[in-house]
Amino acid sequence: MRQRRWGARRGGRRGARPRPSSAHAFVLRGARAPSQRCPPQSLSRLVGGFQRGAVPKASRKMEQQQEPQAVATSMGGGGKKASATARIGGSIISGFCEIGIFHPVDTVAKRLMSHRGAVAAEGGSGVSLSTNQIIFREAANEPLMKKWGSLFPGVGFGLAYKILQRTYKFGGQLYVRDAVAYRFGDSFTAAFGDKNGKAMMHAFAGSMIGVGEVALLPLDVLKIKAQTNPESLKGRGVFNIFAEEGFALYRGAGWTAARNAPGSFALFGGAAVARNAMGLKEGQTPTWVQSFVSSVAGATASISVASPMDVVKTRIQNRDFNDPRSGSAIVTDLLRHEGPGAFFKGLAPKLAVVGPKLVFSFAVAQKMIAMIDDRLQK
Questions:
Q1: Exposed, middle or buried: residue 161 (CB in 10 Å: 0-12, 13-18, 19+)?
Q2: If residue 286 lies in a helix (H) or strand (E), which one and from where to where?
Q3: CA-to-CA distance for 240 and 362, rounded, in angstroms?
Q4: Lowest mean pLDDT among 40-49, 148-157, 303-312
Q5: Superfamily of domain 85-117+153-377
Q6: What CA–CA distance (Å, rounded) separates 209 from 196?
Q7: Contact, 173 vs 166, CB < 8 A?
Q8: What is the C-alpha to C-alpha distance for residues 94 and 88, in angstroms, rounded to an integer?
Q9: CA–CA separation, 266 and 203 (whole Å)
Q10: Which of 168, 248, 156 is CA-nearest to residue 208?
Q11: 3-state DSSP call for residue 1?
Q12: Pfam families given for it (predicted)?
């Protein structure tokens, strides 16, 4: 009876629905299928919701779809989350490009760090000759192109290591950060505030990822030995080395973890702090300049903090396989014969290249991840 009177008062057929206003019609079209009926009770609840400031579910879904999400690389940014295939593929391409361009500079830094004794000799010409011999070794007196070619020892090990490292580090840090935010996000926010809490979560996740890099240590050991002590690998195949040395390839794992934990903490944390200082919000797409500045800030902090441990790690890894000295003995010898300044050997060339290196690798990874993801979705 009530339904019949409602239709009769409006002069329409039995059960006819009133013509809503344009605003209500838009919401109804977004929230309901055209074939669904809207009885007056639902319309009254909808109008009451507008008066109380409530937002329909359809509008909330539209707003959530428009909100930016964190980009798939660990440096942050705006845009959609990429698939795992795109993330792995982009990281692999980034590793290929990085090792091809920056492997020679890494060789120079490793050889300077491995050199025992003073790098500079007395006299202007002596300095150049000494540095030339340390860096280029047997190719010190060869033409320029042969000198350049001598800086690519261990490129096969380096390629395998860099691809696995970039895939693990770039892709894995974001997953760890999400897990930390899910489990301990409120604790970080309460302790450090909103912005600083997010930066600390990035740093903490990076530190955990850095410790896990120890699993890739054998490839890094073989790369460094090929760069600084190639005689120890002569006449030996890769499988032969793994079979004979076994867990000896993990020598210095503790020092490596001690180097990676603060280094990765400073890398991701420094980059996050720099983004906060530039006013970038979580999920906001940075410009190329902002990406460069945040990468340089994080990389400089990381290399500076990890430099002492990096020198010890390199000395452990480049020695002969039958050298029984422990990391503590190497530190003692280093302080006794070379002084505390030896902990920062090779820092200048690493700082000179690490900013562009990280900017390059992150930029390539982000672009490749986005391009591969777009291809997969077509």
A1: buried
A2: none
A3: 35
A4: 40-49
A5: Mitochondrial carrier domain (1.50.40.10)
A6: 20
A7: no
A8: 10
A9: 7
A10: 168
A11: coil
A12: Mito_carr (PF00153)
Q: What is the dihedral of CA 141, 147, 150, 151, to 10 degrees?
A: 130
User: Which contiguous run of DSSP H or E holds residue 122?
Assistant: none
Task: Determine the distance from the C-alpha atom of residue 103 to the mean position of all C-alpha atoms in its chain, rounded to a whole number.
Answer: 19
- Please give the model's pTM, rounded to 2 decimal places: 0.60
- Give residue 1's pLDDT: 46
Helices (H) then strands (E): counts for the chain: 16, 0
Sign for the CA dihedral angle at 215, 221, 226, 230 comes to negative
Torsion angle, CA of 162/168/173/175, rounded to 10 degrees? Answer: 160
pLDDT-based confidence at 343, cuts 50/70/90?
A: confident
User: Read out DSSP for 260-275?
Assistant: HHHHHHHHHHHHHHHH
The tokens describing 73, both together, are: 């690389």
Per the CB < 8 A criterion, the answer to whether 296 and 303 are in contact is: no
Digit-coded pLDDT (tens) for 180-234: 999 999 999 999 988 889 899 999 999 999 999 899 888 888 887 777 777 777 7
Q: Which two tokens stand for residue 229?
A: 């002590």
DSSP 159: H
**Interatomic CA distance for residues 136 and 149, integer angstroms:** 10
The residue ranges of every structural domain in the chain are: 85-117+153-377
